[in-house]
Design goal:
The chain is mainly β and 351 residues long. Helices cover 4% and strands 42% of the residues. The protein contains 2 helices and 27 strands.
């Protein structure tokens, strides 16, 4: 990745100050949750444009997001607009994905990034190797198709995406194998233009792909090993939120609220009054948002609830075991010296 490595700044001290005031030991304060701003330049300069739509790798090291800021990288931007960036929180490096039209989805090691961009004729899905700068078209090589909504396996080998071969045909969910260069259809939609398949979400090993039938509101999980298709919704019209990386837990939305299904046991759990925004890779923690935009990390086993912040987040925003969450907010009191009055991206860490 390009950029200059510096120490990341902007860690919130509010929790530590509160603990000190109440007489808690310094050792306990070191283990308290902390928050830092992600959407800054490598030297800590705050962005001059709004940032949002952040996702993270399982280890929490890399964060990809969208921003209209012009000052996050030394080369600036070629023209006003919204660009995609990836931040390495270990080195502080910031990399701009020049032609990405969507937030890049990252492999676990941060090497591979998939996103949408203009092809020769239509919007298409691309895969970039950030270590070499090479770029691969994921959709059909002739560029006559339209592809969108990419989601990537943890090793960066498999990319599931929404594919439209012709305006008169329904959309389907296809999968690209980077190692073999082959493509396969994983959805089981009928030849009916009113029943598009949408919103793919892939497991970490690339074996399972969740998607929804826009015509019926059904949600399905395809198993690429067995060839099976499992209906995962609760009988109501539903949309896919996210499939956990281990392929076991699927979060969905419906008119009645958010819910999750354990695909191994079949158990369904509903969460009235909140929206489920993301699932941790191990499927044990959910990020939810209430009507007041309060973000909460919820444990599925013990039911523990941990306040994260106030704002918005998206699928892919929770790292392994819920150790970190990335989100966006325009609140100016999350970290010191936030004076741009804009939406910024932050990373909350449990310790």
């Amino acid at each position: 990745m390009s950029g200059r490595a510096v120490t990341v700044s902007g860690i919130s001290l509010s929790t530590a100050l509160l603990l000190a005031f109440t007489g808690t030991t310094a050792g306990a304060a070191q283990h308290a949750p902390r928050t830092e701003r992600v959407s800054t330049a490598a030297d800590g300069t705050q962005g001059d444009g709004a940032s949002s739509a952040a996702v993270t790798t399982p280890n929490g090291r890399y964060v990809a997001f969208r921003s209209s800021a012009t000052n996050l990288v030394p080369e600036g931007v070629s023209r006003p607009g919204t660009y995609s960036y990836i931040r390495d929180l270990t080195t502080g490096e910031v990399t701009k994905i020049e032609r990405a039209l969507s937030t890049p989805r990252l492999s676990a090691d941060g090497r591979w990034a998939t996103y949408t961009d203009w092809g020769s004729r239509n919007i298409n899905v691309f895969l970039s190797d950030l270590s070499t700068g090479t770029r691969i078209r994921v959709g059909a090589p002739d560029g006559r198709d339209t592809a969108s909504s990419p989601t990537i396996s943890e090793d960066g080998r498999h990319i599931a995406y929404r594919w439209l071969g012709h305006p008169d045909f329904p959309t389907r969910i296809d999968l690209y194998d980077r190692l073999t260069g082959t493509r396969e259809t994983v959805s089981a939609g009928p030849q009916d233009s009113n029943r598009d398949m949408d919103r793919p979400s892939i497991s970490g090993d690339g074996r399972r792909v969740a998607y929804q039938d826009n015509g019926t509101g059904d949600v399905w999980v395809a198993d690429r090993v067995t060839g099976g298709q499992t209906e995962a919704d609760d009988g109501t019209r539903s949309t896919v939120v996210q499939l956990s990386a281990n392929g076991r837990v699927l979060a969905m939305d419906s008119a009645d609220g958010s819910y999750v299904r354990d695909l191994r046991t079949g158990r369904v759990r509903h969460f009235p009054g909140v929206r489920v925004l993301a699932v941790s890779p191990d499927g044990q923690r959910l990020l939810t948002r209430d009507a007041d935009a309060n973000l909460t990390l919820r444990g599925l086993r013990g039911g523990r609830e941990i306040p994260v912040g106030h704002g918005s987040a998206t699928a892919g925003s929770v790292s392994a075991h819920g150790r970190s969450v990335v989100y966006s907010t325009e609140d100016a009191d999350v970290v010191p010296d936030d004076t741009n009055g804009l939406y910024d991206v932050f990373q909350w860490r449990s310790r």
